[in-house]
Amino acid sequence: MLTLANLSPQKGATKNRKRLGRGPGSGHGKTAGRGHKGYKSRSGSGIKPGFEGGQMPLQRRLPKRGFTNIFKKEYTIVSLSQLDSFDGNTEIDQAALVEAGIVKEGTLVKVLANGEVTKALNINVDKISGSAKSKIEAAGGKIITASPSDSE
After folding, report:
1. Is residue 115 a part of any domain in this protein?
2. Which helix (H) or strand (E) holds 123?
């Protein structure tokens, strides 16, 4: 019967590792399979990834593309359906949204018109879309943004 105690690999499935540089009787003595002289016979040698034998490597032949704007502003998106959970005639600003767990502290907020708003809300955020603005004003709410030119 076959158990974990008497398991062994099939005949020919395993090989002994090459023991390099252990004398002429081993078959891998003297130069230890590295041949005579040359860069690859030396210790510490080895071709680096991307090396193409002195030819200009691919990563240097291809043109650079793209640009990363380090001053880009990332906005956290809040939908109208999330704002509808607040009570009517309340001031909704960054602190209120953080307290409700909708956004993280220290992030910029943009309101988008996903969903409907049924109450009059006073919203003070960094940015708001045009359709969200019209829906909030139609429900009797007021909007205060950082600057009027910011609204899209």
Report:
1. yes
2. strand 122-125
Give the pLDDT confidence of 66-84 residue by residue, as tens digits. Answer: 999 999 999 999 999 999 8
Instruction: Answer whether residue 32 is part of any domain.
Output: no
For residue 34, being part of any structural domain is answered with no
How far is the first Cα of the chain from the last one, in angstroms, to the nearest whole number? 76
Given a cut of 80, is residue 105 above it in pLDDT? yes
The predicted model gives 130-151 an average pLDDT of 80
Residue type, 152: E
Q: Is there a domain that residue 133 lies in?
A: yes
Q: How far apart are CA 61 and CA 55, in angstroms?
A: 10
Distance, CA of 86 to CA of 97 (rounded, Å): 10
Structurally, the chain folds into a number of domains equal to 1
Beta-sheet pairing, 122-125 with 91-92: parallel
Q: Is there a contact between 122 and 93 (Cβ–Cβ < 8 Å)?
A: no
pLDDT of residue 146: 64
- Host domain of residue 115: 75-150
Helix (H), strand (E) counts: the chain: 4, 6
CATH number of the structural domain spanning residue 109: 3.100.10.10
pLDDT exceeds cutoff 70 at 148: no
